[in-house]
Design a protein that fits this description.
Number of helices of chain B: 10
Number of helices of chain A: 5
Structural class of chain B: alpha/beta
Oligomer: heterodimer
Shape of chain B: globular
Radius of gyration of chain A: 17 Å
Strand order of the largest sheet of chain A: 10-9-8-7-11-12-15
Strand content of chain B: 15-25%
Largest sheet of chain B: 9 strands, parallel
Helix content of chain A: 10-25%
Order of helices and strands of chain A: EEHEEEHEEHEEEHEHEEEE
Helix content of chain B: 25-40%
Largest interface: A-B, 30 and 32 residues
Order of helices and strands of chain B: EEEEEEEHEHEHHEHEEEEEHEHEHHH
Distance between the termini of chain B: 26 Å
Radius of gyration of chain B: 18 Å
Structural class of chain A: alpha/beta
Shape of chain A: globular
Amino acid sequence: MSVSQKTLPVSGADTPQPGYRVLWIEDHELAARCVPGMFFELKADRRDQDNRLYKPISVYQVREGRIAFMVKEVGDGSKALCLLQPGDGVRLIGPLGNAFPLLNVQNILLVSGGVGYPPLSFLKSCLPSASRVIHLHGGASAKDVFPCDIVCTEDGSAGSKGRVTDLVPSVIADNRIQLVYSCGPQPMLKALARMVEGIPHFVSLEAYMACGIGVCYGCSVPVGNEFKRVCKDGPVFNAADIAWEKL
Amino acid sequence: MSSSKSKLGKLDFDPPVTVASGTFGTEYFDFFDQRWLGAYVCKTVTFEPKAGNPVPRLYETEAGLLNAIGLQNPGLKGFIGDELPRLRDLLQIPLIVSFSGSTPTEFCQMLECLEKQPGIAGYEVNVSCPNVEKEGLPFGIDPDVVFNLTRELSKLTDKELTVKLSPNVSSIEQVAQAAEAGGATSLALINTLWGMAVDWRTGKSRIGRKVCGYSGMGVKPVALALTYKAAQAVKLPILAMGGIHTWRDALEFFYAGASVVAVGTAMFSNSQAVVELVQGLNGYLEERNLRLKDIIGKVS
């Protein structure tokens, strides 16, 4: 399937938390191609972004021909995206990347940190209804928290105080977890990968990208003895394959 | 596209635009027709496969991009077995193979091997990648080494032989002249400048390798000056690159002495950069009733 490049109007936007923006676009053909794990390269359709790189942003929701992205304001490019209003243009390339493999198991744990939330939220909506799914989400503070099953924050301003990984061992033991999906900051993913060793674990990695389409090898991550591209070979990897010590 | 047609040594370029090695792949042909390019330059191939450099490998600066990819590639065998047949099937434009060895002998072995393969129109000899320990750099900065290497390579092929030069030298003229004397049929410049970025909050380098390659918008004035200097120093045609985003940028390089230009980092921010460049260039020439050759090297 070829990758599309388009400029589309923002069809809807809201601010779920300060510093985050949800942007909707409408495109039935693109929406039909989105599966959980995929991302788009996005940038605001503004002159000051002409010579800036696109930002890789995961698909957050897909509904009736519309696609939502959740953007966290980090630098200039994401800030320009967060300022977009309905009717403003967004340039996009996608859908890109692979997908979370769907396994038919009973007890599934989703672990997200910060802006790792959106792809897992989309995944949750597509998991088999017969499965029991627990979504554990952590953030720095209450401003980084979104709807899920168990919340924790580093400053204790929402849910339990601490890192999201602090809660993982007890959740796994109490719920006989058979499969883990995760997305978030690398230190969190690294710690999580160690904790859930032995349980199938698929992780969606974030990476700095230039091309986003597999050309430049800038986003590569160590997998076994080689480097694989997050944009094209990922972003979803089997956590057991990643050489975490080299990340 | 005829008003802007050009030549790079033995190769006709119509349009006079190609891509910078390592910044382009056939994936981009999802976004535009390949005939907007005068030729295709592949990512540099090395003799042995290369895993590439530790991460992180990229950082976008205020004006341009830092990278330390480290020539990640499947090696000559992998290239000939997988990539070259794929390119041969797909390309309707000339293929220029960029390659780099870790010794002069290795460069020669690689060229001998590539010469046996059909579907290659020319070679870019990469003696200038700043991101590898062995390949390239010791060759690209020493005029004597460039001369000897080019002399040996030019005996092995009748095809276009362009030598890709580093900007990180004290005299681009001497290196350019050495390549010309050795038998290169054109020059390609510039490869990336040395670059670096540090996270001031933590003191940590933004790039795993610390010192890396700098390309994109910020390098354009440097690339332009080196294109001009090289063009003054040799008779060889020049394939110029370094921060070219628009047709206006390209015109500056043609006036400075480039026969053909390449787009690199600009592709990452605008995948239509090549199309817009060719359209703008043709518009400029037609409006003034000029041919490209009327302006090459005519900076005043």
